[in-house]
């Protein structure tokens, strides 16, 4: 007598296995009465919302939506016969539609949409109804931002901005990127005030963003953008020329042409001053001239437009730019042109 293989377990009739497979793979039946999903019964004005259905029976032939607690012909919004037949009712508007699942979709909710909504689902075997109360929350006005300054000087000034709103959840954006408190940035406990110390040229825009309802984290309201103008420089001052250098000096022969160009990085744009024996030669970035025996010294200076002071420093002209409050951001760059006179046929 053959014994069953213990590794295969006890023998089961084949028809039981097939029946169990059919039950597992068969259509999913509704486990209770039809109802409107509670999560979809709260909306925010001026935003989309969908009244979703739960426990929808199989074989639905028509979905009908009504405004109110009754499914009367006078209160019908729209009916839908799958796959694509839609019939508007007396209370239809172009702000609502029905999805392919029979859900009622609001393109943009208004406060007047608050109230009862009833759905009737017709199948070949009967009809089910469900009613739910839709609450549309007021969005309220967007926040308003203000700042104590819009034109500042880098590494010197600070900027304080305030977000005017009654919302409790406030975020700050700099250059369209969310920011938090840091060594240079301070945010008040209620989130309404932002202070940036020692502003940088990279602090270009400020904006505050609010979230009124925790249950709707994706619904945000943004203030207008405050643009900051941050003055900096002059820096990276340089002198270029067609002359050759020797022992820290630039040399040129009598009657030769001298080409000098002074450049630097600054905002606002710098002003250039070419000096000859302490007198202003030109305010252009480029200087071209011919040397004669009476030209001893030239000096190139650059400064932003707010303040310029020129004076002697060890016998050589120098430049100091002051950005206010006695703070000195001096940039000293000079090109000295030394004339070497070559006398020929000198009498002995």
TrEMBL record:
Q: Which domain of life is it from?
A: Eukaryota
- Name recorded for this polypeptide: Ig-like domain-containing protein
**Would the keyword Transmembrane turn up in this protein's UniProt record?**
yes
Q: Which chain regions cross the lipid bilayer?
A: 319-341
The entry's keywords: Disulfide bond, Glycoprotein, Immunoglobulin domain, Membrane, Signal, Transmembrane, Transmembrane helix
Enumerate the PANTHER family for this protein: CARCINOEMBRYONIC ANTIGEN-RELATED CELL ADHESION MOLECULE 18, CARCINOEMBRYONIC ANTIGEN-RELATED CELL ADHESION MOLECULE 8
Report whether Nucleotide-binding shows up as a keyword of the record: no
